């Protein structure tokens, strides 16, 4: 929650800006995780943010460390459900008609990524990144003095019917093959032991013990920013408008009139990263999974752990002292006004499944989650510009994968081999 100790950004010096060792563009959870990791390794770091710390998707997300979420969104299963979902403008996935023309390249790549061989390859890559994410996140929590924000308790996936639950079993078998623990739960009575107060119509679920949440994702990002500043990192406000790589540095043009020179630049600007990649002549299929939620005050519901309502694409999460109801996907870009009916629809559904939920006094939010069509982030050096590294496109997994991404970026800056196969995450997979 916001308080007087929130991190403060200072304007970029218009003149005489110092040469920076590493400039990280973006003060969300990914950018600040990268910055802290590099500072821990002795690098000199400045962070450039267009708005405020945790101003975007890092501020209002569901707070999940979803290490079991290794299955890509792009898949034959999703393609089969897509027509039905798109007929419901308030359903789990929507595509505003006005955004369709600009989304066509993304949709083409999404279709290509849904082929079975590509789904299998993306799952392997995602699982490898997730295996590093847990230890890496704990290490950054410790470095930032924020382990008190970590909540155990797992996640309970809930299904509307036995047929829906059975349809999920192949996905759970894939997770099991990647070492993910879970327990299937049958019967309303057994489900109520994991979460009292569910509607009796729910009788099938799967409990994932290794799933964790954070007390408040905004608090975590603010801890990161304070840790960066406390270790000598610079926090600047300014809008990066373009990159011009040179032999020994990268010139970063700032809309406010400054130019910053950095030996290395890390692009971690989330949904706004495409402008910077385009300045290098690299038009990547980055779009947004716009997510909506409502955060209810303390006392709204006695929630024991995060709940995922699989057939409806939303979660109910303990956040701070309250409850956050949100999720779903709206492929709508960064500029369209929020459709608050989507947040209201999720709250209505939550009340159907949690009859005792007190839905009054909530605060609504919409955030733009940066999404690549194959569900894998872009991490690594920009093709043809080795002094520029990419770290964006994590979709709804930015909080989960930020610390692991930071480790990989640090490997790239040191010139070390990655501990996993870098090819699935490279920008070159879209530049043919």
Helix/strand layout:
Layout: E1 10-11, E2 20-25, H1 29-40, E3 45-49, H2 57-60, E4 64-65, H3 76-86, E5 93-94, H4 100-113, H5 116-143, E6 150-151, E7 155-159, H6 162-177, E8 183-186, H7 188-194, E9 204-208, E10 212-214, H8 217-230, E11 234-237, E12 240-245, E13 250-254, E14 259-267, H9 274-278, E15 287-296, E16 306-309, E17 314-319, E18 322-330, H10 340-353, E19 363-371, E20 378-382, E21 385-392, H11 398-414
Parallel strand pairs: 1-11, 2-3, 2-14, 3-11, 5-18, 7-16, 14-21
Antiparallel strand pairs: 4-10, 6-10, 7-9, 8-9, 12-13, 13-14, 15-18, 15-19, 16-17, 17-18, 20-21
Helix pairs in contact: 1-8, 1-11, 5-11
The overall pLDDT, averaged over residues, is 94
Please work out how many helical segments DSSP would assign.
Answer: 11
**By CATH's scheme, which homologous superfamily of the largest domain applies?**
D-Amino Acid Oxidase, subunit A, domain 2
Uncertain segments are: none
- What is the CATH class of the largest domain? Alpha Beta
Q: How far is the first residue's CA from the last residue's CA? A: 44 Å
Major sheet details:
9 strands, mixed
How much of the residues is beta strand, in percent? Answer: 25-35%
CATH topology name of the largest domain? D-Amino Acid Oxidase, Chain A, domain 2
Q: What count of domains describes the coordinates? A: 2
From the 3D coordinates, which CATH architecture of the largest domain would you assign? 2-Layer Sandwich
Helix content: 25-40%
Structural class: alpha/beta
* Total beta strands: 21
Radius of gyration of CA atoms, rounded to a whole number: 21 Å
Overall 3D form: globular
